[in-house]
Amino acid sequence: MPMVLDTSEVSRNLQRIGAGFGVTLTHAWLDRLGALIVAEAKRICPYRRGDLMRSIGWKVVGNVLIIFALMEYAMVQHENLEYHHDRGEAKYIEKPLLEVGLGEAPEVVARELVRKLGEL
């Protein structure tokens, strides 16, 4: 049940700054963004033995950040708002993706851009 954040347009715009700079920057900030989203997803996911939490991860493929949970019951735990969880909640990937991914993405990009420009 992957959630996807596509940054193709951002990467194209960054390519105009310099050859290869956009790809490197885009991959770096997507990787950082993935770490932030997954940390929050693991913090709020339903928890009984920790299997679901340990199965949550991310990968960057090209200009796309993929957030995933690998347990076979991950989707039903994510989507069913009627489930009662002693610890954790539904929408454990979607909520951080929207709050961290979209809310903090411009800040993460700006920090990474300033850092990269300082290396030039």
What does this protein structure show overall?
The chain has helices spanning 8-15, 21-44, 51-55, 74-79, 94-102, 105-119; strands at 3-6, 56-61, 64-69. The chain has a three-stranded antiparallel sheet with strand order 1-3-2. It has one domain (3-119). The mean pLDDT is 80. The radius of gyration is 16 Å and the shape is elongated. The protein contains six helices and three strands, in the order βαααββααα. It has 120 residues and is an alpha+beta fold. The longest helix has 24 residues, at 21-44. A hairpin with a 2-residue loop joins β2 and β3.
Short description:
This protein is of the alpha+beta class and 120 residues long.
The proportion of strand residues reads 5-15%
The residue-averaged pLDDT reads: 80
Largest sheet: 3 strands, antiparallel
Shape: elongated
Runs in which pLDDT lies below 50 for 5 or more consecutive residues are none
> In which range does the helix fraction lie?
55-70%
Give the oligomeric state of the chains in this entry, treating copies of one chain as homo and distinct chains as hetero. single chain
The count of β-strands is: 3
The topology string of helices and strands comes to EHHHEEHHH
